[in-house]
């Protein structure tokens, strides 16, 4: 029994040397320091600036990359009331694009006649005499190996219409 008493006394002396309170003293000091710092106020949210939509109003005007046309009012051609585009016909696909985007890249011919290949509007298209091309009611009137001749019907600005000839020349390989 004396041996067990001795073991209990040694265990009590050993356990009394362990101080649990001193183990986290440095952590407690840091937390006290953080709590003592002055608190800064949270900044308010910035004010919301609403988006203002921009409407491009010069879409119908002449492109700034095209040379301006000099018009002599005395010699300006007057439109005719007899010339009018056929508004009742069904529009063809290639009429939805400006004629400037097209370029002639070749021809095909067979017993039915000559056809031209024009590049633009996302691909190469086969056209023939009588087809329409461009936004100004352009009708193809002639095709040869070097060019596609188109006659456009444009307003003259005074209530009449003018026929304006245009040509798409063959684009050589580059």
Textual characterization of the structure:
The protein has 174 residues and is of the alpha+beta class. The chain has a domain at 85-169: SH3 type barrels, CATH 2.30.30. Helices cover 16% and strands 25% of the residues. A hairpin with a 2-residue loop joins strand 1 and strand 2 (113-120). The radius of gyration is 44 Å and the shape is elongated. The mean pLDDT is 82. This is Type IV pilus assembly protein PilP. It holds the Pfam family PilP.
Rg, Å, rounded: 44 Å
Number of helices: 2
Proportion of helical residues:
10-25%
SS class? alpha+beta
Strands of the biggest beta sheet: in what spatial order?
A: 1-2-3
Protein name: Type IV pilus assembly protein PilP
Organism: Azotobacter beijerinckii
InterPro entries: PilP
Pfam family, one: PilP
